[in-house]
Amino acid sequence: MEFISLTAAATLTEWSERTFWRRFKDGAIKRELHNGKAVVQFRAIAANACIPLDDAAVALVAQADAGNATAQTDLALLFLENRRPKGALAWLELAAKQDHGNAMYLLGAFLIAGDGGEKDENLGLMWVCKAASHQNSFATAVLQSIFSKLSHGN
């Protein structure tokens, strides 16, 4: 992979937009435009990645950056395995907005639990419900459990 979107580079490095602009200005990283989107050379940021980037992870990043919702969800899980909830949240949001059932469920569970400081039970429940409507078995089981407890007065 030669280039990566600025958005993907930000999640991989956990650098702020301001940090990127500073590095563009001082020439440490070169920004280019491809199809109207800002991209950077992958090799310019790879050493600063907050997750391990073996060959499989690099391929996953490329697929996720290209918009593959399954790859985005898998990359989010890689971020979670490496205790990087902010990056995980970003990738889950991208995949969930593409109606990926597992991403919707994971995003909902993430928001309900408040992992990484992002706690929003109402939004989380909305994502779990949406995942259930897309036949996600985990989301369906969670909702069945909630409704069972409500109907039994627990």
Short note summarizing the structure:
This protein has 154 residues and is mainly α.
Give an account of the 3D structure.
The protein has helices spanning 6-13, 17-25, 42-45, 55-65, 69-81, 85-96, 101-113, 121-133, 137-151; strands spanning 3-5, 31-34, 37-41. Helix 5 runs antiparallel to helix 6 and helix 7 runs antiparallel to helix 8 (121-133). The model has no long low-confidence stretch (mean pLDDT 91). 36% of the residues are buried. 64% of the residues lie in helices and 8% in strands. The chain is mainly α and 154 residues long. The chain has a three-stranded antiparallel β-sheet with strand order 1-3-2.
| Radius of gyration, whole Å | 18 Å
Overall outline? elongated
Instruction: Give the end-to-end Cα distance, rounded to a whole number of Å.
Output: 53 Å
Main pleated sheet: 3 strands, antiparallel
Poorly predicted residue ranges:
none
Q: Helix share of residues? A: 55-70%
Count of DSSP strands: 3
Strand order of the largest sheet: 1-3-2
Strand content range: 5-15%
What are its keywords?
mainly alpha; elongated
Topology summary:
Elements: E1 3-5, H1 6-13, H2 17-25, E2 31-34, E3 37-41, H3 42-45, H4 55-65, H5 69-81, H6 85-96, H7 101-113, H8 121-133, H9 137-151
Antiparallel strand pairs: 1-3, 2-3
Helix pairs in contact: 4-5, 5-6, 6-7, 7-8, 8-9
